[in-house]
Amino acid sequence: MSRINDVGGMSGFAPIVEEPDEPRFHADWEAHVFALNGALIRRGVYNLDEFRDAQERLPVREYLAASYYERWFAAIRLLLAEKGVATAEELAHG
To answer: Nearest 10 degrees: CA dihedral of 60, 77, 26, 67?
Structure first.
């Protein structure tokens, strides 16, 4: 089964534009999402394979509209709800 993240060989996608001297994070929130993901993996809430799978299961429109770390954050929220760590309502309303 092909998922949206598996676009190798597909046409219709714009080329990837590389930023010279691109910073690791474009905003503070991205660094926070990176750190949160690492902490949750180290605590055993989920593992890296589950995290990758959660990103790949995002709805196609959401996946394509999201930035790199927006996909990370969406996957984290999905996994926290699936694992019973937080409810979808708690995650939606902070």
So the answer is: 0
